[in-house]
């Protein structure tokens, strides 16, 4: 039974004991996220260089399969911004048939990764690389939307960023003021609505208002109808993509990149969902589902798909409990195709460009750049190389170079962990402060230790050890005396742990950091997450600090204790 559960989709496991209340919660969440997915699916498709219905077909087919077969309870699948740049590049060089071949090949790779357990390999991509290409993709997406946002009267734009920006600058005098006004108003609605209410997404309000204005006032702006002839009503037709064997070798790098991006984004989305729900996803089952979805998507004229972090978060906030919500999200989009497709001809491209500007900003993780710039020169170099190669060269090259540089950095840091030095009386005496054998650990303290290098590829061990915080005492001491090396990915894992413990009302203490980890913790201002008073030189000092916290706050962090005290007044 355990072996069967190991490979069972979350849907089957979730349906055990499924109740009417669960269905009602999933129904509301599925309808909500289905409406949220509509403008995004069309916008991603148009930005990728295909017709808007291709994005909706992808959200319906891939979204259904990812929820029905996946290893996450609340994951929402569909087209995402991560694929826009590479899909547009493939279409520009090899046409639609090349894209379909790439999507099928990527789907096969994902299935193999899931069945063989290679999905865990994505954890070996360091954080500076993921931040670098995410920043780069966001810049490229934003640059492709300037034309539609301003209504510039120019033809097709160059694929290279510098040439594209040059053409845009040369034609800035052709701004269509009605389009610019509509896109600016749409952008304002998307940004302001969440500040007024979280119940209705701003993109939906902007889409409905802008479409109504175009339909009733006949605004002279470009629409899906004028640019693409509208969206066909009815089910997508099933057709086998044209097989061109001469392209297979040429398209392998692109297929590997799509598979890698799909794996990284889907598993990252699943991890975010786990942190929001307290559930644990099955990464191998999730990757198999992602692979099957990408194998099926081209049969219906779709594009690559993966787990979507923003839509998954919306699904959770809307009350989703099981994968049924994701299935309802797909059926909602299918219903729109069958019933309301003719109305899509009034959807203005200006509003969809505003949606993508917000997507580009949100996916950019711009705040992380400040963290990266406080790290070591080597970490900054890895980020910069990945970012600039993504923007000015090619996403595939950027990922390959970024991972290669990170691997060299990994080898260098591992080499630095080897030390040879004589044992002196001072060394022995200093070690007494770090050992636990002669010290009493009170019941309000839980001690964790990290032994060895804490670099990308190893941080999941900390997440597994702290997945369930309920057994942990009010004060958690993390001994890092034997942590021989730390990098940006490891630092991010420590920050996440500190924030999770703080949110749960617990206090994190770090003790015994060696020279390189201590230097990185200081450079990155990790102290903001725990407080300088909670970073101690050795375990003896950490236990003393734990006694102070217990006597002052009963083990709770000062902010939580103060909040509880205020509530009791």
In short:
This protein is mostly helical.
Main features:
3 domains; 64% helix; mainly alpha; Transcription Regulator spoIIAA; disordered C terminus; 25 helices; globular; 569 residues; single chain; two-stranded antiparallel sheet
Describe it for me?
With 569 residues, this protein is mainly α. The chain contains 25 helices and six strands. The protein folds into three domains: 20-363, no CATH class; 377-416; 426-568, Transcription Regulator spoIIAA (2-Layer Sandwich). The longest helix has 33 residues, at 84-116. The chain is globular and about 85 Å long.
Q: Treating each run of at least 4 consecutive H or I residues as one helix, how many helices?
A: 25
Instruction: Please compute the radius of gyration using only Cα atoms.
Output: 26 Å
Q: What does the largest sheet look like? A: 4 strands, parallel
Mean pLDDT comes to: 85
Number of strands: 6
- Which stretches of 5+ consecutive residues score pLDDT under 50? 558-569
Structural class: mainly alpha
Strand content: under 5%
What is the 3D shape?
Answer: globular
Distance between the termini: 52 Å
- Give the count of structural domains: 3
Going across the major beta sheet, what is the strand order?
Answer: 3-4-5-6
Helix content: 55-70%
């Amino acid at each position: 039974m355990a072996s069967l559960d190991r490979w069972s989709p979350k849907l089957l496991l979730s349906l055990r004991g499924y109740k009417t209340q669960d269905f009602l919660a999933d129904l509301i969440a599925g309808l909500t996220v289905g409406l949220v997915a509509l403008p995004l699916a069309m916008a991603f498709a148009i930005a990728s260089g295909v017709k808007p219905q291709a994005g909706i077909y992808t959200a319906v087919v891939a979204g259904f399969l990812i929820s029905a077969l996946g290893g996450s309870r609340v994951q929402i699948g569909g087209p995402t911004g991560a694929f826009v740049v590479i899909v547009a590049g493939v279409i520009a060089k090899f046409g639609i048939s090349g894209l379909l071949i790439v999507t099928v090949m990527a789907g096969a790779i994902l299935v193999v990764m899931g069945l063989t357990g290679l999905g865990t390999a994505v954890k070996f991509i360091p954080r500076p690389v993921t931040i670098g290409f995410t920043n780069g993709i966001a810049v490229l997406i934003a640059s492709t939307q300037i034309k539609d946002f301003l209504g510039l009267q120019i033809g097709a734009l160059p694929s290279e960023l510098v040439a594209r920006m040059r053409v845009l600058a040369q034609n800035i005098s052709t701004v269509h003021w009605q389009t610019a006004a509509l896109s600016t108003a749409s952008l304002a609605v998307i940004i302001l609505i969440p500040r007024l209410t979280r119940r209705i997404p701003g993109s939906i309000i902007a889409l409905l208002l802008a479409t109504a204005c175009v339909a009733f006032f006949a605004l002279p702006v470009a629409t899906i109808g004028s640019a693409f002839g509208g969206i066909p009503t009815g089910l997508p037709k099933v057709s086998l993509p044209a097989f061109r064997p001469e392209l297979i070798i040429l398209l392998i790098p692109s297929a590997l990149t799509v598979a890698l991006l799909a794996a990284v984004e889907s598993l990252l989305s699943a991890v975010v969902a786990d942190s929001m729900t307290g559930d644990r996803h099955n990464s191998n089952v999730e990757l198999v589902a992602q692979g099957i979805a990408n194998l099926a998507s081209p049969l219906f004229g779709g594009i690559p798909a993966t787990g979507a972090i923003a839509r998954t978060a919306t699904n959770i906030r809307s009350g989703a409990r099981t994968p049924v919500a994701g299935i309802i999200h797909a059926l909602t989009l299918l219903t729109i195709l069958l019933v309301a497709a003719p109305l899509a001809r009034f959807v203005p491209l200006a509003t969809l460009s505003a949606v993508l500007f917000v997507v580009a900003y949100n996916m950019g993780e711009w705040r992380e750049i400040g963290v990266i710039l406080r790290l070591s020169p080597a970490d900054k170099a890895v980020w910069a190389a990945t970012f600039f190669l993504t923007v000015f060269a090619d996403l595939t090259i950027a990922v390959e170079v970024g991972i290669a540089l990170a691997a060299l950095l990994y080898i260098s840091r591992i080499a630095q962990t080897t030390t040879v030095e004589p044992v002196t009386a001072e060394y022995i005496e200093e070690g007494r402060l770090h050992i636990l054998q002669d010290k009493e650990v009170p019941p309000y303290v839980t001690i964790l230790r990290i032994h060895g290098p804490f670099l990308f590829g190893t941080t999941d061990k900390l997440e597994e050890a702290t997945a369930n915080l309920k057994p942990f005492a009010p004060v958690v001491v993390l001994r890092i005396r034997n942590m021989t090396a730390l990098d940006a990915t490891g630092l991010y894992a420590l920050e996440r742990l500190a924030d999770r413990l703080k949110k749960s009302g617990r206090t994190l203490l770090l003790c015994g950091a060696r020279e390189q980890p201590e230097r990185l913790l200081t450079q990155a201002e990790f102290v903001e997450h725990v407080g300088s008073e909670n970073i101690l030189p050795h375990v003896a000092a950490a236990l003393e600090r734990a006694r102070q916290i217990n006597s002052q706050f009963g083990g709770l962090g000062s902010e939580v204790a103060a909040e509880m005290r205020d509530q009791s007044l």
